[in-house]
Structure formats: C-alpha cells, structure tokens
Amino acid sequence: MHARDTHAADLRFNQPTIETVAFQIRRAEQTAMALIAFDFDGTLSDSEMTVLLGERMDVAEEMADITERAMNDELSYADSLRRRAALLEGLSVERADEAYESVRLRPGAGDVIDQLREQGHTVVILTGGFDDGVEAALAAADTEVDRIVANHLPVSGGRLPGEVTGPLIEGTKDEQLLALTDELGIDPEATIAVGDGANDLPMLEVAGIAIGFSPKPAVEPVCDLTVSSMDDLAKSLIDHGVLTRS
Q1: Which pTM was predicted?
Q2: Kind plus residue range of the DSSP H or E element containing 194
Q3: Angle between helices 60-71 and 77-87 (to 10 degrees)
Q4: Mapping DSSP to helix (H, G, I), strand (E, B) and coil, where does residue 134 land?
Q5: Which residue out of 39, 132, 196, 200 is catalytically annotated?
Q6: Catalytic residue among 5, 41, 132, 182
Q7: 41 included as an active-site residue
Q8: Looking at residue 24, what is its pLDDT?
Q9: Residue 206 confidence (pLDDT) above 70
C-alpha cells in the first residue's frame, strides 16, 4: 500500500522502535481501507441462489453444473447466466419468492458486515446473482450494506420469462468497483475485494488487497490471502488493521 510505504519511510528516518513502526503501519492500513467489496454466492452466502430457484423447476442439477463450469472459468459468465435464466422460464413469481426467501448469509457474515460498517468502512456487494435474493438474505440476518450491485430476474404475467437483466452480465466487477471508488473519492488501492469464483477475478486483480474465500483453482493465484470461514476473514481483517478487536 502506498500509504503504508510512506509511513514506513518516515518512521525509518526518525528511527523509532519496532513497536511504533508496527502501530503506524496498522493505523495507515486501517485509515486507507475504506471500501470492502464482497461477492455474494459462495462468499457471503453458501446458498447457491440459482440452484434454489432451479429446484422449483426440477433443473437444480443442470443449474449446479453450469454454475461450476462458470466459476472454474470453463464457460463465460454471461453465457452461463443466460443459460441458467432460460432454465427458469415459466417459474411462478410465488415459487421464485420462496427461493429468494430461503437464501441465507453464511454464519458470521452479518457480524463481519456490521463490524466493518460500525468502524467506518463502506461495504458493498458486487454479484452476478439476483437482487431479490441478496436483499432477502440481508433482511433475514438483520444487517445492511451500503450498496448492492446485482442482476435481476424480471417477471411478466406472474412468471419468469427466462431472461436476466443487470449490470453484471456483460459488465465486470472491476468496472463496478472502480466506478464506486471514483464516485466515493476512494483510491482503488484503498479497497479490499473478497470472492471465490472466476467472475471475481477482475475485482480481485484491481483491489488493494485480494482475499479468496475458499477460492476456485483459477482464482487462488491472484489472491493475497485466502480464508475458509467468516471467523478466518475477521481475524485477517484484524491482522491487516482494517478491524479492531471488539
């Protein structure tokens, strides 16, 4: 981090103690890391939204296969998303709502979100998943984020027409992350991205710190660190000075 390097150089000039250097580095990181961007499916949530929807149409197995291929970068995300949406053609809005209402955050995710926001950080969700499911999961966990950028399954005549709309079909998460940093006046280096799949690669590559959440093989090489639970994530954020111990 540029802020961390500057602090470290100043501190070496003044020849302080090692403990003071460590404190200044942690303070710089905590000040700089102003925006944390999360993927949703597979990261904040262990509910696969498209699979839950697919169960209502008896196409869950096909959904899971397409999702896995996309997350391993074997299929373009846009193509995979359109294929999955097409499998839902004819699903009633009532059945779709049942699926959305069954989406849940991963254990501990709500606590991490709340701690980040309480300590002054901006928390956003960037997902190729669907806004209705994300909002339902946040409501069930009694938590909120500052921004949700997600896709949407439209309804026509009380049923899903098998289409999908939204900014993250052809658009990428790095574009959305950089747009947010520009809007909020935040240096892109002062960001953390947390994700697991191939469609998270663009935002992981431009973020100041890239955290893989049980990342797929195609994703792990670009990660600065990896975690496998929300407890691990919270500890890593504390170690990097982003969170302070409560």
Answers
A1: 0.84
A2: strand 191-195
A3: 170
A4: helix
A5: 39
A6: 41
A7: yes
A8: 37
A9: yes
